[in-house]
Amino acid sequence: MIIYIVCLGMNSFLSCTDKNDGDNDNDVDPATTSFIYYIDSEDGNDTNAGFSEDSAWKSLSKIDEIALLPGDTIKFKRGSRFHGTLYISDSGEDNKYIVLTSYSDSNDQAPLFTNTVFNSGENQYGNCIRLQGDYIIVENLYFEHTVAELSGNLGFPLMWELGAIYIDKTASHCIVRNNEIFDCGVGIKSYGAHALITNNYIHDCNRILKEWSWGPLAIWLGGDYQEVSYNTVINYSAVDPRISWGPNSYGGGGADGGVIEIDDGREPKSNIEIHHNYTRDNQGFIEVTWTDLVQNPPYTDFSIHHNVSDDYQQFIALWSGSGCRIENNTVIRRKKNVCDWGVFNLTQYNGKNYVRNNLVIVENDIVIFPGGSQQTSSANSIISNNLFFAASGELNIGTEGPGANSINSDPLLINYQNAQGPEDFNLSASSPAVNSGLNLGFNLDFNDSAIPNDGLPDIGAFEF
Length: 464
What we know:
This protein is an all-beta fold. It has one domain (54-425): Pectate Lyase C-like, CATH 2.160.20. 1% of the residues lie in helices and 32% in strands. The strands form 7 sheets. A 12-stranded parallel β-sheet has the order 3-4-7-12-15-18-21-26-29-32-35-38, with no helix packed on it. A hairpin with an 8-residue loop joins strand 1 and strand 2 (16-20). The longest helix is centred in the middle third of the chain and has 4 residues, at 156-159.
């Protein structure tokens, strides 16, 4: 006989789900034991015990009935489908994370999560998984078709609640990795300190997010001490003449969206690292806003390095930000639509942001340093050892640059003309970018090869 005992603790008491296999009278110590729970939306049953594949639960609601302990794992069977919001408010510990993952050796699709309900009166914001505790991992899951195309007078506080995966302000040290996110108005939203968003595939959302002013966002950051790395983001962009959020004097209107946005000026932000991501056909790589509920918030010390961007609109629009490092990126700006901000749109007065060791190829007369409508005086960027090349049209450096030790010549990439993926932007042996960079303390290039390989570091995301 199997006996299941549910323990509900308060304050200093432990909260646990305890189980005894009936073969002996020894109690399980909840302080040292971790449990695995199984959920199968097709063949599970909520009257089951939930502790094995053969006794899996069916619905997400069963998770609400248990108190998760550090080290516990919730496994969702491949081929399962879930609708609604799963809240995880319990916390793991360092080296004993609570893990949400998949199981089954079948070739079925990873467990699918969706939520199309947005009802602020009922605290429903289209989230699939909302993390409210510490030390939680979300991995190997699939998310699709979450809420977008919102209409009405929705202010910033409501819009900031969106995200298929949402890391709340109460959560810290959470990891979101190895997930696929398809056509979600906001893929991942994170306020959580020390969050790691890594190795996710986020793709193909061309719906507006807020009618008619915002486009879809793959990754949205509202807090500091976060890391975004090794993700692939493809085709996050909404193009529609009804999008008219900004003055046409600096290219606003007609298109919006993008890979990464950093905003919510209610709190200062620092120590955000964005590196080793590959992005293509998005409406910009990163935008850091200068006004929402607060104007000109103090955003400092971001590190943006070893990314490969083949996108529209801009590589970075840093409307507000100082002391940030934009280094060793490979930026391809050959695509242009109704909204274009150049490559490095750095506008904070006297921001003193670093732009170094970047490899930039432009076409269609796209400007490198366009400035912006917020700029009242020089941004005083620290620009050095970049390579700029116009594969077609004229090379237009713009309001700043080219900076010290710049190279204005063909970088001789291995397959630029027919490029389909990041590997095509590797350097050839004769590239002028080889051994032309500054030593900025990085150890691994985009391919995780050692820096430097021979002599000085190279310019761009790849080390020859």
